[in-house]
Design brief:
22% strand
């Protein structure tokens, strides 16, 4: 009997060890894929940020769209010199797989717990997104960012927007604010699906230091082990900076701006770096 028990134990150990080895090998392969996707996402974001609103041309924007043609969608299915708006959405395999998006903790399903463990282990559903607006042959706005689902199931995102110049509505947002400087604006909002996203906008007239800072996106949160603390703020490091307004003559112009801002319609307020460009 003891010999039989030993054989059974040996068999169980072999099965458990085999399952463990399969899990480790599978994780390594999937994690290498996740890191590979992170590299492609970095290339897309840097290519987008190389477009300079106010000087980059329709042809430069179209070249970017053609490079990622399998991920591109055009507004109204048209793209001409006078007006071209397009979006690039490049998701990894995990984002398209139902398993990795499971978040139903309350029903204690094995799938939800396994998915949470996988996300904590760096296998996170990630989507990298780009928006480009061209008017009269010139890029007028470019936006790049990414979002993912955290281990606990939260959907978070961060991105940066570049414009030629701030609109009046943008400058209205700067009035009396000590959490923003006159060269960049940071906002956060809750998306309809319950996710939390932060963005920062900056004009091409900003100083090179501000542009470098405002455009910096930390992509390591896609695959970091352990998870990045406090996302989405860890995804956009510049949002934490203590911004200084004292070097500008903002106070001298705020009274004039206030009079203009008080009479703006909702449509005009939406015409901003974060809203409509038309």
């Amino acid at each position: 009997m003891s010999a039989r028990i030993r054989k059974i134990k040996r068999f169980v150990y072999l099965v458990v060890a085999s399952i463990g080895i399969i899990i480790v090998i599978s994780w390594c392969a999937l994690y290498l894929y996740a890191r590979s996707y992170q590299g492609r996402a970095k290339s897309l974001i840097l290519s987008t940020q190389s477009l300079r609103p106010g000087s980059s041309t329709f042809y430069e924007a179209k070249q970017l769209a053609d490079q990622y043609r399998e991920f591109v969608s055009y507004s109204n299915n048209t793209c001409i010199l006078a007006k071209c708006d397009f979006e690039i959405r490049m998701a990894n395999w995990f984002a398209a797989t139902r398993f990795f998006n499971a978040i139903s903790y309350w029903d204690y399903s094995w799938q939800a717990w396994a998915a949470a463990l996988a996300r904590k282990a760096g296998l996170r559903p990630v989507t990298t997104y780009v928006h480009i607006a061209v008017r009269n042959g010139i890029v007028v706005r470019s936006h790049a960012g990414y979002g993912f689902r955290t281990g606990n199931g939260a959907s978070v995102g961060a991105g940066t927007t570049a414009v030629k110049e701030f609109y009046l509505a943008d400058r209205c947002k700067l009035i009396g604010s000590h959490s923003r400087d006159v060269e960049s604006i940071g906002i956060n909002f809750t998306s309809p699906g319950g996710g939390y996203t932060i963005m920062r906008a900056y004009p091409m007239s900003a100083t090179p230091e501000t542009i470098r800072s405002a455009s910096a996106i930390d992509l390591s949160c896609m695959t970091s082990l352990p998870e990045c603390p406090n996302p989405p703020y860890s995804m956009l490091p510049s949002i934490h900076e203590k911004l200084d307004r004292s070097s500008t003559n903002a106070l001298a112009t705020e009274l004039q701006l206030m009079k203009q801002c008080e009479t703006m319609t909702p449509e005009e307020l939406n015409h901003s770096a974060f809203g409509s460009v038309d």
